[in-house]
Amino acid sequence: MKKIIAVDGPAGAGKSTVSKIAAAKLGYTYIDTGAMYRAVGLKVLQSGKSVEDVARDIDIKLDEAARVFLDGEEVTKKIRTPEVSRAASDVAKFGVVRKKLTELQREMAAQGSVIMDGRDIGTQVLPNADLKIFLTATVEERARRRLQELTDKGLTADFAQIVREISLRDKQDSEREIAPLAKAEDAVLLDSTNLTIEQVVAEILRLAGAA
Q1: Is 64 within a domain?
Q2: Within a domain: 108
Q3: Considering the entire predicted model, what is its pTM?
């Protein structure tokens, strides 16, 4: 059985959803690193402080229910807005932020069997992971999923605008100088465009040796 599983991929590919379910089925701890960057972005927006100042003393915790706490306050829902998504991409460009969060993420992974998802888990954070998966989907499918997610939350959004934002996010994530989004050479490519959540989870479990 694979004990340390890294799941990377672009925004909206379904990493958080399937990783959380797979972790529960395996009895592993799920670590959503994207939520950690969102928390940094949220604090920058709320505080008006520089990214460097925020990264220096920020406190981020994730509990077993995947709730996110920023300086003691639960922000699980607050970090899921388009504005915070853009801020997360911006702060991820800063080396001081990536260094701080990478340290926290490695400490979490050292506690036991984990599934960690993000943009640079297999390439930077956990290069020695037992299993690396690169989960992707077309831009249009990822935009459709994002639109449905926002609609379910009672928020209004424009499909074309979401497509533009995801395309821009892909470009920023893959072209940034520090820890760009990339498929690790030894990662398994998993395209979820035409797969259900259940099918993707089943494939992760199979790759992990649990099916």
Answers
A1: yes
A2: yes
A3: 0.85
